[in-house]
Design a protein that fits this description.
Elements: E1 2-5, H1 15-19, E2 36-38, H2 44-52, E3 59-62, E4 68-69
Antiparallel strand pairs: 1-2, 1-3, 3-4
């Protein structure tokens, strides 16, 4: 599973990170570090939960099947 990040919409709320710091890495200013996140095996539920908490909906979840969920 992967997460695609729309950096332009990120406001640095860090709700994703507070739920799953092992998935969501932040820079020194509190913004997501990477445009695309490869979710570690076993952390898929945490990644979905963290992505779902983002008020700006910056994440698109890409399942192993290639199906995209979320984002705008």
């Amino acid at each position: 599973m992967k997460l695609k990040v729309n950096w332009e919409k990120c406001q640095g709320n860090a709700r994703c990170w507070s739920t799953a710091p092992h998935v969501f890495k932040l820079d020194d200013e509190g913004y997501i570090e990477h445009h695309d996140i490869e979710v570690p095996e076993g952390a898929e539920d945490d990644a979905r939960r963290g992505a779902g908490l983002c008020p700006e909906r910056v994440f698109t979840v890409i399942e192993e099947s290639g199906k995209e969920l979320g984002g705008e």
